[in-house]
Design goal:
The chain has six helices and no strands. By secondary structure, it is mostly helical. The protein has two domains: about 40 residues; about 60 residues.
Amino acid sequence: MRSDRLASVMRRIAAGKLDRAAAADALGVSERHVNRLMEQYGVKRPRGQATTRKLEARLRREAKERAARAVLAGAKTPEEARLQTGASLRTVYRWVARLKKRKIAVSKRAKKQQNGPKNQRKTRK
């Protein structure tokens, strides 16, 4: 009976219908033991699902970018951006400096593309 229940739970985990915590409750074991069972049976997390850690990192990065852009545009003061993001004032100034540096680098690259390569040979007439 236990092996049937275990197999059914592993199939539901593989299909993405059950998470590890719910599987642990269903089997009456710890989440760590569910991880061991998954490894033993070759069950992997369903593909295509972003981990929450990656999602949170992307959201934090986007929030930093928005705050720095707002400071550069004059829509917010660095102090307001600090309060909104929970970062220190020095950190907000670093974000703004990085954004400025990136914009300058982009504009230099655009100028190079407009002017063409510098070291072209001049032809004699």
